[in-house]
Amino acid sequence: MPRPLWSGAISFGLVTIPVKLVSATQDRSVHFHQVHTEDGARVRVRKYCEIEDREVPVGEIGKGYEVSTDTLIAVTDAELEAMPLPTAKAIEIVAFVSAASIDPVRLSGDSYFLQADGQVAAKPYALIAKALARNTKVAIAKLAWHGRERLVLLRVRDGVLLAHVLKWDDEIRDPAELAPKEPEVTDAEIAEAVHLIDSMTTDDISGYRDTYREALEAVIEAKAEDRQPSAPRAAAGKPGGKVVDLMAALQESVRKARTARGESGEEAEIHEMPESKPKKKTTATKPAKKAPAKKAGKTAAAKKPTRRQRGA
Hints:
Blueprint: E1 6-12, E2 15-23, E3 48-49, E4 54-55, E5 63-68, E6 71-75, H1 77-81, E7 90-98, E8 107-116, H2 122-133, E9 137-145, E10 148-157, E11 160-166, H3 187-199, H4 211-224, H5 246-260, H6 265-268, H7 276-280, H8 282-285, H9 290-311
Parallel strand pairs: 1-7
Antiparallel strand pairs: 1-2, 2-8, 3-4, 5-6, 7-9, 8-11, 9-10, 10-11
């Protein structure tokens, strides 16, 4: 069981629920130390006091805010704890909103489980968990933690309350300046893109793996065993610089996606949009029509004797 990172209470109207905050995820990334490239020795970062010119232990290190180049304002932990914030030891629920109304860009990536702290918390904890599970609402709350107040989203997963840290409004950049000029996109192309989305839709994303980490671990293992790492595999489907037929690319993507899902080739054909093929594939289908044209010519040649006989 992971170590609790914070303890306090959920404030839900007049209801108080003692809880502990526990990390909901674990870091599986490969972490590196800094080394001297000449001899492989560790390069360590030591913390020195500029005035006393000596290394300072962790117990003597505090917080300071830089107001100018040469001026730091020291702020102690006691001063931070004495700040008049109702969220200092409480997760204060301020509103309930529809889960669909939360823009994913607000999610910071930090998620935590809320564990009921003691028997007294069991019933109110279960109450709010069951109430949230019964509808599509999520709770929006405020929490002061690690020197700042955070906005969090509370939801239920398998009967356990889960907190996701959200970005504040002023932490989200305006994307207007990044939006491209509106290109001309046909209804047929949009419909084909929707077909592609449908063909790639799944309810389970549990099978995906961190292949970069696996490859990196294989490299480290090979070097530890004093052998050469495996040669890299050729990249599949590298994007080229040439312009492609967008509709043809979409239709081929739909075909491949459906084939990968085990669907037959007949089912991979697009029947819902008979208008889309003539519009975009006119030039692409001309070479394919040459063969039928030759067959038609042969048929006409075969019929000539019949016509002469009729003339006779």
